[in-house]
Amino acid sequence: MKKTTFFLCALILALPLASCGKDDRGDGLNHMYNVPLCGNPQSLDPQFADDPSSNTVIKNLYSGLVSMDQSGKISCCNAESYTVSPDNLVYTFKLRQDNYWFFDSNDNDYIDDDECFPVVADDYVFAFQRILDPQMQSPYASDFSCIKNAKSIINKEASPESAGVTALDKYTLEITLDYPSAEFLGMLTSSAAYPCNKEFFYSTKGRYGLDEDSVMSNGAFYVRQWFYDPYGVHNILYMKRNDKNISEQYQISPSYLSFTIQKSDSDIKQLFKDEEIDCFTTMNNSYNSKKYSVTSSKATTLGLIFNPDDNYFSNQNLRKALALSIDRNDLSGRIGSDISIASGIIPPAANLAGRSYRELSSDSQFSSYNLEEAKKYLEAAKQELNIGSVESIKILVNAETVNSGDLHILSQSWQETLGVYIGIEDVTADEFNRRIADGDFSIALYPLKGDINSGLSVIGQFEKNEFLKKSLGKDFSYTDKILKCQTVAELVEIYRSAEQDIISGFGFIPLFYKNSYLVANKDNEEIFFDPFSESVDFRLAKNYS
Fold this sequence. Notes:
Elements: H1 2-19, E1 32-38, H2 52-61, E2 66-68, E3 74-76, E4 79-84, E5 90-95, E6 100-102, E7 116-118, H3 121-132, H4 150-154, E8 165-169, E9 172-176, H5 184-187, H6 198-203, E10 221-227, E11 236-241, E12 256-262, H7 265-273, E13 279-282, E14 292-306, H8 316-324, H9 328-332, E15 339-341, E16 351-352, E17 355-356, H10 357-360, H11 371-385, E18 393-398, H12 405-418, E19 422-427, H13 429-438, E20 443-448, H14 455-459, H15 461-464, H16 466-472, H17 479-483, H18 488-504, E21 508-521, E22 524-525, E23 528-530, E24 535-537, E25 542-543
Parallel strand pairs: 1-12, 18-19, 18-20
Antiparallel strand pairs: 2-3, 4-5, 5-9, 6-7, 8-9, 10-11, 11-12, 13-21, 14-20, 14-21, 15-21, 16-17, 22-25, 23-24
Helix pairs in contact: 8-11
């Protein structure tokens, strides 16, 4: 009797498996995604926010004129179409008339509950004025400095209203540049270029983007509830599908996004282990691709940086000795699978004209291994420092970013070839960031990553980041040069020049390109992860559980 019961149960359990092929699993629509945020979003103001939690919510809350797909191809989003003048100075966008602002609140002076109204050209005009307004202190101002009068506005020599961004009529937007820029269209895919409604902005009385009553959606989802208590554990941000914006051109697959706000990556991984969330992002992957859906992208360049105030490593000859003694060919066969050898600054995930920049400009041109020269520079450094040998020191490493075992191989090589012992000090992300800011290190393995998928965003870190600027020990200014490039060929050449300029200063020595990962349960598809902004786009996500 027991055997019969067991056989019947096994048969019943096996039937769904036999009949549930990929074609019979449903459409995957209307799923409520349970997903994590590591830390409370600092702001949902797209012209200002730049932390990963904010970026993910903003990606699903707003949409812009154009968008970039996973391959780097740019296409219309809220713009129905656009034209560019023969001199490449004037961009004219015809807006879709079915993109709506939506706000869900029971108590707001400006808008009634569940009311919606169209996104118009003036909303983009106001957004660009905010980006360029020096009082706003947007981190994206320099990215749009090619817009007419932008520099004068940023330098407080002109008002934001003088920016070359004009509403020709309700649904026609014109953007005029000071000079042609091949990068401009790509910059418009960033969250900074999302629209902002002027009346709603001022109705929030300085709290725009800071709570659930101070955000308004023109994208796939809207904020239904946002609760955060820094001393609590049940912190959530709950979003509902914005049905007002569904159209033939703009599909939204999930019905809800339920974000749980967690304090650490380890907390998030435990939730995934307990099957309480659908997916998460990580820098370190240990998940079997046969059991989980794992996508990866090399968007981070790991390089050695040196404390410019350090007694030893402020010496350029010593830095040259270390750099020239790195045999990358030897390292390539001995490192882990989630990194690859880097000789350049811009990582492979950065796209240009729909292709990886590294396909257009190989980093092999920057390879500089020369052990004999390295030994000469080491002796020169010893004489300049008046020392007989270099004392042992340690490389500061964020253990949450990379497995330091790969660095031990390099450390052993330095000891064998140069007689210099350099150890490894693994620390938490918080301690790493604090010690970098405090200058409490000699050498560190620094993760260099742009804010968006653009070579300019990567190179621009050496102009925006005060420590990186100081580490180069020289003036470095390429933003204007990059923005003034009119063709892809010109961009490739100026990026190559910028990379060479950084590398030749030996203040940043590239070592590895590092993967970022999106790990999801196997029954999820079309969840898109931007490894630069670290945002996760659920607009087209489908769940077949």
